[in-house]
Amino acid sequence: MVEKYRRFAMHRLEEAAKDTPVILIHGPRQCGKTTLAQLFGEAPSYEYITFDDLVQLDGASSDPVGFVRNLPERVILDEIQRAPRIFLPLKAAVDADRGPGRFILTGSTNVLLLPKLADSLAGRLEILRLHPLSQEELAGKESDFLAKLFSASFPGGRIPRAGLDITERIISGGYPAALSRESFHRKAAWYHEYIETIVQRDVRDLARIASLDSLPRLLRLAASQTSRMVNLADLASAFQFSRPTLKDYIQLLERAFLIEQLPPWSSNRISRLIKSSKLHVTDTGLAAALLGADANTLRKDRALLGQLLETFVVQELRRQASRADGNVSFYHFRTKDGVEINLVLEAVGSNIAGIEIKASATVTKSDFRGLTKLRNAHGDHFACGVVLYDGDSIVSFGDRLFAVPLHALWEL
User: Fold this and answer.
1) DSSP 8-state code for residue 365
2) What is the pLDDT of residue 2?
3) Which residues of 258-289 are buried (b: 16+ CB within 10 A; e: fewer)?
4) Which residues are CB-contacts of 185 (< 8 A; sequence separation ≥ 6)?
5) Is the pTM of this model over 0.90?
């Protein structure tokens, strides 16, 4: 099996398989979970079973105990969310033999929200979230951006401007199959077919809903609102849904890893904080396809470029954090008087860092207003504040505050 891109999550999978009986790789369909699992499984000789195979699915659903009893010693179970009845038999098998690395599971929906999993494999597995390809994976070199952010150790000097290149990266996204296509038109065609497949397969499996055709429209509206505050009332009125129904639909899109909500940063040291979440589509290639926005569109529409660039940075950092040692939590920050930070990150030890994102090539002191407020409120727990911008120089703007070029996300 040949893999075009090296996945930096491989080392986490290798480490987990040395001391954990069950490893769950979950993330959106077509992001590379199966390829990662099979590449890992080649050396230790894992057998591969997919529940997209209806014969295997029927066997697991009809006789889950017998199905698990007859599994080989080491096995990859692909699309595990389609066979929830085997969770309890898997628990029994693990309790009888806790040998490490026995079961590698993959799931294209957030199976952690399935009650049977919560009641069975919880505490017996390690979870590896796989995203679409990051820019550092596309470049083939692990970035030290997060380490430099939390140590406030950005070197002086120049980095090439992102310039027009950034719009191409935004509209391409990170799905390997879409990246293999040359034109925006062909990439967009893949993304639209991708959405149709997810709605007709994964979402239908997740819930019985009356209006499947509403989900692509809701996702398109979510794409237009990416990096903005979630407003359920406005979304509900656009579809003539009740707010509880809309919340159910949004949860379905979240469970399919298509959208996510970025929670607000909370602190008793800063007053008048807004408590609404921000909405982000999980891949900007998907968002651009849904909006029909190619690179020329983004260059002309600066407001839309700003939205998609913010989502692009948030998702790139999520992808980098998912393969890094130690947990990093993600938030946004906004006060009722308009002071904001696009992204607040909290690492182990309560160290926090802030990132403001600009599509322009200039930075002024006023761009650090929110970061300065966060630094002054949290003192030694504040690691660093960065304004990412479309320039070519790393410049200090005071104590632990830096202007940093966008390319530094994957070039450092």
Assistant:
1) G
2) 42
3) bbbebebbeeeebeeebeeebbbbbbbbbbbb
4) none
5) yes
Q: Measured between alpha carbons, how far apart are the two ends of the chain, in Å?
A: 31
379-408: pLDDT as tens digits: 999 999 999 999 999 999 999 999 999 999
CA–CA gap between residue 412 and residue 402 (Å, rounded): 14
112 has a pLDDT exceeding 70? no
Tens of pLDDT, residue by residue over 22-39, are 999 999 999 999 999 999
DSSP secondary structure of 91-137? HHHHHH---TT-EEEEESS-GGGSHHHHTTTTTSEEEEE-PSPPHHH
Residue 291: both structure tokens together: 């909006």
Distance CA 294, CA 271 (A): 41
**Locus of tokens 């590449």:** 39
CA distance 50 to 315: 28
Q: Which residues contact 380 (CB under 8 A, 6 or more apart)?
A: none
Instruction: Answer with the residue of higher pLDDT: 171 or 3.
Output: 171
Q: What is the DSSP code string of 136-187?
A: HHHHTS---HHHHHHHT-PPPEE----TTHHHHHHHH-S-HHHHTS-SHHHH
Cβ within 8 Å of residue 404, ≥6 positions away: 154, 386, 387, 388, 389, 394
Question: Which residue has 């002309």 as its token pair?
Answer: 300
Q: In a 3-state reduction of DSSP, which class is residue 248? A: helix
Take residue 106 and report the two structure tokens written for it.
């993959």
Asked if 174 contacts 133 with a C-beta cutoff of 8 angstroms, the reply is yes
How open is the CA angle 214-217-223, to the nearest 5 degrees? 140
Whether residue 163 contacts residue 390, with contact meaning beta carbons closer than 8 Å, is answered with yes
232 or 355, greater pLDDT:
355
Q: For tokens 């008048």, what's the residue?
A: 272
User: Across the strands, what pairs with 104?
Assistant: 23, 76
